[in-house]
Amino acid sequence: xxxxxxxxxxxxxxxxxxxxxxxxxxxxxxxxxxxxxxxxxxxxxxxxxxxxxxxxxxxxxxxxxxxxxxxxxxxxxxxxxxxxxxxxxxxxxxxxxxxxxxxxxxxxxxxxxxxxxxxxxxxxxxxxxxxxxxxxxxxxxxxxxxxxxxxxxxxxxxxxxxxxxxxxx
Length: 169
Hints:
Elements: H1 14-52, E1 53-62, E2 72-80, E3 89-96, E4 104-111, E5 121-129, E6 132-136, E7 141-143, E8 151-157
Parallel strand pairs: 1-8
Antiparallel strand pairs: 1-4, 2-3, 2-5, 5-6, 5-7, 6-8
């Protein structure tokens, strides 16, 4: 019968066991306190950016029976009008060239994080031809940008200094 002998030269020493235990602890700490929060943060930031874009839709009309020239430009703006002693701050703007004919549809895209509570917002629209304003909103269209439904804005034709209405084109 042969004797079974054990070769302990390949077995880890006490110091090597301690070192591997410390390394496993460090790896676990990294995964728990470093990698996992990083991944959660990436997932949350992706969802937030996708959810932040909002849209405000509507159409612009005018009552005059006329056709706009091909170079007419419709500009629609979402404005922060809360500062009565300062010009309105433009939150977003859409320019449609050529403006086309009524009704002219618009979609304002904005970041919902730009909308602050207890702040007054309005939508403004103008139609210009060769840089000259032909139609504009003559009253503020106050809205809640986060809760608004599609709107219809009626523009008024601009009158020159003599009281005549401007003729596009």
